[in-house]
């Protein structure tokens, strides 16, 4: 997040005619940050200056409700009824910037684990099986379940159990 004071300083230095490199070195920010701040300033002023955008801004809230938020349908209505052909990307930007009708998507739930814990939980080893309970053993002879696998592999006649 760029502080408002920093944004103001970047714009002020640019208005004074300083190049991007000097601004970035003076304020100790990257040139991309300076470019982004200057672009945001230009973008915020553009919709107010263009009379076509102002005309669309007046139509958008009613069209958005009538078309149930479907931007493709809004573009069709604008073309058919108002004679305005507009690109889909421009229309969605105008809907996003000029109307408050779009509600942000709700999160599906809350998570009770810290980042990275959900991966560890899936890859934990299985809990050890209980030993000594004959009812849990699927083998005919319950004693076989209580013995290690190496001992079970030996024929019963050869081991002392």
Description:
- The structure is a single chain.
- With 161 residues, the chain is mainly alpha-helical.
- Among the domains are: 45 residues, Arc Repressor Mutant, subunit A (Orthogonal Bundle); 48 residues.
- It contains nine helices and no strands.
- The longest helix has 19 residues.
List keywords for this structure.
mainly alpha, Arc Repressor Mutant, subunit A, 161 residues
> Tell me, what's the shape?
flat
Main sheet specs: none
Structural class: mainly alpha
Strand content: under 5%
| Averaged pLDDT | 76
Helix coverage percent of residues? 55-70%
Tally of extended strands?
A: 0
Oligomer: single chain
Distance between the termini: 72 Å
Q: What order do the SSEs take from the amino end to the carboxyl end, as H and E?
A: HHHHHHHHH
Q: Low-confidence parts lasting 5 or more residues at pLDDT below 50?
A: none
Radius of gyration: 34 Å
User: What is the overall number of helices?
Assistant: 9
Helices, strands, pairings?
Elements: H1 4-15, H2 20-27, H3 31-49, H4 51-66, H5 71-82, H6 88-98, H7 117-122, H8 142-145, H9 149-153
In short:
With 161 residues, this protein is mainly α. It contains nine helices and no strands.
């Amino acid at each position: 997040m760029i502080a408002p004071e920093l944004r103001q300083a970047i714009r002020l230095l640019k208005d004074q005619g300083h190049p991007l490199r000097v601004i970035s070195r003076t304020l100790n920010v990257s040139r991309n940050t300076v470019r982004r701040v200057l672009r945001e300033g230009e973008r915020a002023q553009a919709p107010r200056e263009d009379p076509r955008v102002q005309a669309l801004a007046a139509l958008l809230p009613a069209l958005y409700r009538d078309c149930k938020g479907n931007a493709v349908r809004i573009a069709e209505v604008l073309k058919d009824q108002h004679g305005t052909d507009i690109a889909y990307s421009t229309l969605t930007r105008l809907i996003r910037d000029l109307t408050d009708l779009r509600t942000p998507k709700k999160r599906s739930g809350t998570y009770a684990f810290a980042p990275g814990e959900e991966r560890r939980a899936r890859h934990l080893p299985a809990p050890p099986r209980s030993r000594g309970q004959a009812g849990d053993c699927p083998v005919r002879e319950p004693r076989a379940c209580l013995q290690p696998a190496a001992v079970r592999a030996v024929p019963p006649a050869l081991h002392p159990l």
